[in-house]
Amino acid sequence: MSLEHRLKTFRGRIEDYLDSKLPREDTAPERLHAAMRYAVLGGGKRVRPTLVYLTGETLGVQIERLDAPAAAVEIIHAYSLVHDDLPAMDDDDLRRGRPTCHRAFDEATAILAGDALQILAFELLSGDTAMIGNPRNRLAIIRELAVASGTAGMAGGQAIDLWAQGRAPDVATLETMHSLKTGALINASVLMAAWSADHPDPALIDALGRFGRAIGLAFQIQDDILDIEGDTETLGKTAGADSARDKPTYPSVVGLERARQRAAELCDAAIDALSGLGESATALRQMAAYIVRRDY
After folding, report:
1. What is the chain's alpha carbon radius of gyration, rounded to the nearest angstrom?
2. Which CATH number fits domain 3-293: 3.10.20.30, 3.40.50.2300, 1.10.600.10, 3.40.630.30?
3. Mind listing the pLDDT tens digit for each residue in 123-140?
């Protein structure tokens, strides 16, 4: 099966699962539920759930075990976009080719939608009966997502991002920001799948962690590049928004060519981390290359 076919298959699977787990719009409170569904089901690359499925496939994990982790990480990602787009944060009007959640509804509803989505993600992980039954593994899955969402992950990275506007951070600070704000959830996607295996080997967890950290940083560097080279219609969000806000990006700090080189280096490092997994990790290697060559 080609990577393109896998991407299409896994996107379809996660869309159906998300649709089944999100509250229906015709149940109270209707407006809040409508905003939650709007935020999650409005398109997107679904990179994080795809990584859950691809990693699980590499390790021979039953796909039913992976649905809740895949949905949970995507729901956390969706909640973060709702809050990042708010006037108090990035003040964006466009997301995934549509008005941002607070524009389509209102700021208060968007805040509540983000709050409720965050809780829903952990509700799925704690209650889904198809996930791995081993309580140690399930707790490890929950912890991976929790840490990746908090001050040691996404929220911490966003705080650095807000601090960095109008400043000129060095490369180390920029990589820390990117690794936390974006990379942590991508890494968690890989590790949540690894903990879904019956007997995850510590050396394997370490290798997949190195893979996840490398592609997580590469993903954000490519996003920075696309903010310069992409167009609004293709990206589904306002191109050039980071530059307009005087936000530091990889190209603004080291230049466009060095940014491309760094993304390629990270892709190579990610692929190298999978050397011990043989042919079973072919699709994960292909995914690493896809992350740094995508155009949206």
Report:
1. 18
2. 1.10.600.10
3. 999 999 999 999 999 999
